[in-house]
Every structure is written in C-alpha cells, then in structure tokens.
Amino acid sequence: MKASKIMLCVSGLILLFTIAAATAADAPTLTFTFSTVQIKNAQDTHVYGVNNAGVMVGRYVDSAGIDHGMKLVGKKLTTIDDPSGSDTFCYNINSANVIVGSYANSSNNSQAFIYQNKHFRDITPPGAVASSAFDVNDEGFVIGGYTDSAGATHGFVWNGKKMYQTVDVPGASYTLASGINNNRLITLNWGDPAGNVESALYNGKTDRIIQKRLNVPGAVSSTANSIDSAGDVVYAWTDSTGLHHGALCIGCASPGRKYHKFDDPKGADGTYGDGINDHGLIVGVYFTNGGATAEGFKATY
User: What is the pTM of this model?
Assistant: First the structure.
C-alpha cells in the first residue's frame, strides 16, 4: 500500500533515521462533502496540506513511477522537485506560500527543506542524520522530525532562523511533530510500548505537553496530522482490522473536545485525514484497488 503523510511521518523517518478522556465522545453529526483531487496521467496523487487560500501541496507519482512534489492552485499544477536529490514530498504550506517537506539525498536519507520564492533551503536540526519538515505556520515556525546518529527519532521546532528545539514525549519510543498552528500549538505523534501510534498536544510557547493522549476514541493507532488556528485537529487512525480512517477533533485543546469520524465514500481501502485550514477545508488521501491506488481528496464540513 502506498503511504500517506502519516505513514511517511512514522515509517519513512524510522527507515531513515488509552483512548482519549471520557469527555472526548464521538459526535457523528457533522456532514463532510468530498471531491477527488487527481493529477492527470499520475499513477498516484497524495494531498498532504492546504493553506487558508485553498492552495494544496503534496506529491504525485508520474507514469514512470517517479515521485514529485506538487502545488495545486485550483487545477493549475506546479511540480516542485528539490534539485539536491530525488523523491520530493511537499507536506504543508502557509499563508505566504512557504512550503516545507523532504527529499531523498545522495545517501538516500530524508532531508527536510523549506521552499520560498522558488528557492530551496535545507533544514537540518543539530545531530540529525535524517529529517523531514511537516508543517510551517504564518510566523515561519517549522516543525518536523529527525533521526540522530544513535537511531533515535525526535520531534523538532525551528523558529526559521537559528533556534532549534528538540521535542520528546516522555516514555515514547519515538516522537514526531506533525502540525503547528498560528498560536504555536503543536500536534505530536509518538510510539507507545505496544508499538502503536498515539497523539499529544504540545504548547510551543511554554514548552509543555498539555495533553499526552489525544487519541481518536476506538482507535488502535491514532495520528494527529494537522491543527488549525481554532485548535481543531485532523487525524488518520487505524481500527482493529487495520483499516485507516479520517477524523476531525473540534476544540481539541479543550476538555469538551468532540470527534467526528469520516471516510471518503470512494476510499474502499482506507482514508487518511492529512491537512486542514482555518476555513473548514480538509485534505487527504484515499485508497482503492486493494490499497494499490491512491487519490487525493478535499472535504468541506
């Protein structure tokens, strides 16, 4: 099965380098309206992030099987390939059209980058052997994950200048920072002792984990991928059969948070919620053909 942003966040970085509180109840009253995002002649299309203007980023696999980063403005496609390597992935974009992602370098390790005004710049946390950048807010703060020389995987926060901060959930086998909003609230994903993915919420302004388990109710693994300015979080989560689904947590930073689960009706073999903006737009990936084919989607609610 081709990987979505969540799977790449976890498995890609590792190769290179329970349940939420009872107050967090299912709330299946929200209506989601889906439409497919597909690149012409592409084998697969993955949409990972969206900004407040509705500009989407992700990647596609061309007819020759090569991965390319992409930006979509309406139906206008811009291919974004980092010239320093191959297999470019664009994970998210802010309101100033600054894009972050990763590419495979000459050592075939993941290298985080930031792309602005048609220029690429590597992002390398101190001690990183491999790295990926997963989100950037409108202040220019970038978050992601890196693997050190000992093989340990950490989350990181970069202020866009010189300051890097390592983020680790206590007791986790690994930690990845996946999303950041304009209030500097950060979603974290981490490995628990059973080998499952769990989610946390981190206050980037006070350097404090304010919610260690922020998981979708009923999920075996629960990955928080993106957070909007209101503190609403979009997820990819796995059920007991191993099938992936999407979820939206409304007011995730508050005790009264509500979860709304969703599946793209065309995604018989799984749905991943990957990105969210401040205007009720979610993007992600769904799978068909036994997981062999990936298509992007956007959904309003």
Answer: 0.91
